[in-house]
Amino acid sequence: MLIGIVGKPSSGKSTFLNAACRTAAKVGAYPFTTIEPNPGTAYVRVDCICQEFEVECNAKNSICREGVRLIPVDMLDVAGLVPDAHKGRGRGNKFLDDLRRADAFIHVVDASGSLDAEGRDVEPGSWDPKQDVEFLEREISMWLVQILQRDWRRLSRRAETEKMSISTLLGEKLSGLQILETTIKEALRDAQLQTDKPTEWTDEELEVFVQKLRHRAKPMVIAANKIDRAQADHYFESLNQLTDETVIPCSAAGELALRNLSEKGIISYQPGANQFEILQLEKLGEAERNQLQRLQTEILDKYGSTGVQQVLNTVVFEILQLIPVYPVEDANKLSDHDGNILPDVYLVPKGTTARQLAYKIHTDLGDTFIHALDARTKKRLADNYELQANDVIRIVAAGATH
Ligand SMILES: Nc1nc2c(ncn2[C@@H]2O[C@H](COP(=O)(O)OP(=O)(O)OP(=O)(O)O)[C@@H](O)[C@H]2O)c(=O)[nH]1
Ligand SMILES: [Mg+2]
């Protein structure tokens, strides 16, 4: 799974990546600090089922820390987008091709209104960030339009002359963008387009279709960043009212500071928490003490967290609607064949069946699937059983078990 971090220059994308992934991507108070994309691995956090089963995990594909399972998700921070990037302005929009595989985007917005459209400093509060939301969604749509337009004529003619479904042809064309034919069909319905006459679609109609497709295929959460600065709470409220996207108040810089101090052992802090504990007060200078005090009262007390972890969990569990499931090979010991307890957790879309899980683990396991077993009840589950969050599943297959 891949989550893309997008937004205008200097909104705090690389700071968000560094806070979430403990990377060292270059950060700078000037536009286009990032040119080449920065990859990272963040973790979403769920209560691990080891507590319920009263066992100690030997987590392999994830981390279990004091009953909290940290599940890795890949992230990619890219260059800043500016209005009319699709016409080549700024760094253009070609770099978004690195985000073809992205399942969702985090739009990092400067909620303090201190940067213009190009990411240059302006009087704090003088730039209304709602413009950033509008232009960014348009630029992402235009990126998709340009991908489609490359051979739209040939594709639409072929659909009509060969009497092929336009959704099937679009599905083939867009498979590299992780877009399924079912999603395309839904977007065509949303756009109310005549699917038997694609050659007659106007450019505007194609754009409407792409907007609907973007909304479904590349869903977005808005991180109202720099919430620690003046004016930001006001703009956060108005952003929240303006758009149907989820908007989460966020201080990437605050999270970064807390994680840095926590890693040095100076404070104790769990990402996502609404408080921290100072362990080594003597190691903090007066400025740092004041900064921590402000972080507590102006961010954690006010918003409940720095927002970074909440943005990640919202993308994975609310927007993408993924659920954690634990495959095991021994349903009694809850282990793999080496005896590791609850080694793996998979994030799968709601509605995933037992057989689909088998395919995710290994193609052979899917092909030779016989039935699955619920480790809690020891009941057999059919191939079309829809997995539930926190299921512990053994897959029984011909020749191989898991
Ligand atoms: N006050 C405050 N400043 C922040 C926050 N997040 C980032 N910044 C600052 O904003 C500036 C830009 O941060 P970057 O992370 O480099 O922004 P970016 O979006 O990656 O910028 P480009 O790579 O140029 O597109 C830096 O000076 C950061 O320290 C935040 O939550 N609060
Ligand atoms: Mg950057």
Give a nutshell description of this structure.
The chain is of the alpha/beta class. Helix content is 36%, strand content 18%. Strand 3 and strand 4 form a beta hairpin.
The name of the CATH architecture of the domain at 326-397 is: Roll
Please tell me what the overall shape is. Answer: flat
Q: List the bound ligands.
A: guanosine-5'-triphosphate, magnesium ion
Q: How much strand?
A: 15-25%
Strand runs, count: 14
Mean pLDDT: 95
Structural class given helices, strands, pairing? alpha/beta
Topology as a string of helices (H) and strands (E): EHEHEEEHHHHHEHEHEEHHEEHHEEE
| CATH-defined fold name of the domain at 326-397 | Ubiquitin-like (UB roll)
Low-confidence stretches: none
Q: What can you tell me about this protein's structure?
A:
With 402 residues, the protein is an alpha/beta fold. The chain has a domain at 326-397: Roll (Ubiquitin-like (UB roll)). It is built from 13 helices and 14 strands. The protein has helices at 13-21, 50-53, 130-149, 152-161, 166-173, 181-191, 203-217, 232-242, 252-263, 286-303, 308-319, 354-361, 363-367, and strands at residues 2-6, 38-47, 63-65, 68-77, 104-110, 220-225, 246-249, 267-268, 277-278, 322-328, 346-349, 369-374, 380-381, 392-397. The strands form 3 sheets. Strands 1, 2, 3, 4, 5, 6 and 7 form a 7-stranded mixed β-sheet that branches. Strands 11-10-14-12-13 form a 5-stranded mixed β-sheet. The longest helix is centred in the middle third of the chain and has 20 residues, at 130-149. The protein is flat, with a radius of gyration of 23 Å. The two termini are 22 Å apart. The model has no long low-confidence stretch (mean pLDDT 95). It binds guanosine-5'-triphosphate and magnesium ion. Magnesium ion (MG) binds at residues 13-14, 33-34, 77.
